[in-house]
Design brief:
single chain; mainly alpha; two-stranded antiparallel ribbon; 2 strands
Length: 133
């Protein structure tokens, strides 16, 4: 997991999405890792379509997902400096590299495969999620 953490920090410092961001939307890979993952909503892009389509197309073409990130930010009128800024929450800054924190909060069996991979939960078992983000 150290490699994933280091990669996340490098992506954050470079203000870019990880080249594996398409995995969030890749149903074929979801089946291969045998984990139940929530299906994200369509996040609209300025020129139509969803962010998922842009990321999957970039991956299929072997190109960077920088265009997808830039267009997604443009649609929200947010610049990358603001997007990649730590937010101060009640418990301190939100760490950008805690990628499993959202899915881990899902109830019951949906969140269990992710909770197993995190130290702050009591779930016991072997982490079966791939060591890439």
């Amino acid at each position: 997991m150290l490699a994933v953490y280091q990669r996340c920090l490098a992506n954050y410092q470079s203000r870019q999405w990880d080249m594996g961001a398409h995995v969030l939307f890749n149903k074929t890979l979801h089946k291969q890792i045998q984990a139940t993952l929530p299906e994200p909503d369509c996040w609209p892009m300025p020129e139509g379509g969803c962010l998922s389509e842009c990321l999957l197309l970039s991956q299929r073409e072997g190109s960077s997902n920088a265009y997808c990130l830039n267009e997604w930010l443009r649609a929200r009128d947010v610049n990358s400096l603001d997007f990649f800024e730590y937010e101060v929450a009640s418990g301190g800054p939100t760490h950008a590299c805690q990628v499993f924190s959202g899915p881990a909060k899902l109830p019951g069996a949906l969140g269990e495969p992710v909770r197993i991979c995190l130290d702050e939960y009591e779930d016991s078992g072997l982490c079966k999620l791939p060591h890439i983000v």
